[in-house]
């Protein structure tokens, strides 16, 4: 039997990847949406439990343990995605969504329910528009990544400094910059995920790439929501 030529095999993989691509992109948004639902339900549930809130507020070890766990889980999933099974990675993503919901529960104490709902819909609309731009644009956005990362590190440092300064104007500037940065990251991450999944074959490796993409967009959405809430949320 005649050997198949290398370029025939490559073409076949590209065709298969093109067929699997829509399903993989759907999974990215399904996983992201489910994680947001889990986070929202957890946050609301914890906010209505005085015992849990009291335990978090009065126990510094528990509070910082939750914060460290969040960072650790993101790093674990991101750095170890190739070694983790799809099931393990999915369970870690769910766990992260729950812990993030616990730490976000305090927004229900700080802001009115109406303003939280309004800002959520503003965030959803903004996110959808930016994701659409990232998915459809023909421009190469790869160079944006390093600048957005540097800007993100900058506002994290500025936020830490402002904990001690407690300057309202500085906080406003940080919030505006935060919105702009995560708007940019939503566009950049969407294009990057599209490029990574475009010629995947739909196997477990591709599923894990989709899960990692869902985590990236989930983080973009959550942070965009929090910065918009600082700008437009009405406090209790």
Largest sheet: none
For the record, give the distance between the C-alpha atoms at the N and C termini, rounded to a whole number: 76 Å
SSE run: HHHHHHHHH
Q: In which range does the helix fraction lie?
A: over 70%
What structural class should be given to the helix and strand makeup? mainly alpha
* Beta strand %: under 5%
Indicate the low-confidence ranges by residue numbers: 6-17
Structure commentary:
The chain has 236 residues and is an all-alpha fold. Helix content is 85%, strand content 0%. The protein contains 9 helices and no strands. The longest helix is centred in the first third of the chain and has 42 residues, at 6-47.
Q: How are the secondary structure elements laid out?
A:
Blueprint: H1 6-47, H2 50-58, H3 60-80, H4 86-104, H5 107-110, H6 113-136, H7 144-165, H8 168-197, H9 204-232
Helix pairs in contact: 1-4, 1-9, 3-4, 4-9, 6-8, 6-9, 7-8, 8-9
């Amino acid at each position: 039997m005649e050997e198949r030529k290398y370029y025939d095999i490559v073409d076949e993989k590209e065709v298969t990847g093109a067929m699997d691509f829509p399903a993989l992109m759907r999974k990215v948004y399904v996983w992201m949406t489910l994680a947001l639902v889990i986070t929202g339900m957890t946050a609301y549930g914890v906010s209505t439990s005085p015992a849990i809130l009291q335990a978090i507020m009065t126990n510094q070890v528990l509070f910082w343990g939750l914060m460290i766990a969040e960072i650790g889980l993101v790093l674990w999933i991101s750095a170890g995605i190739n070694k983790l099974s799809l099931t393990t990675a999915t369970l870690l993503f769910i766990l992260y969504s729950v812990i993030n919901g616990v730490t976000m529960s305090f927004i229900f104490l700080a802001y009115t329910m109406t303003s939280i709902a309004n800002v959520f819909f503003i965030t959803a609309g903004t996110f959808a528009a930016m994701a659409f731009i990232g998915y459809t644009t023909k421009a190469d956005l790869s160079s944006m990544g390093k600048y957005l990362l540097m800007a993100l590190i900058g506002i994290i440092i500025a936020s830490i400094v402002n904990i001690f300064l407690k300057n309202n104007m500085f906080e406003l500037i940080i919030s505006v910059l935060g919105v702009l940065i995560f708007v940019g990251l939503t566009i950049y991450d969407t294009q990057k995920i599209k490029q990574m999944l475009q010629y995947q074959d739909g196997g477990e490796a591709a599923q894990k790439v989709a899960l990692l993409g869902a985590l990236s967009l989930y983080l973009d959405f959550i942070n965009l929501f929090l910065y918009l809430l600082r700008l437009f949320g009405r406090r209790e």
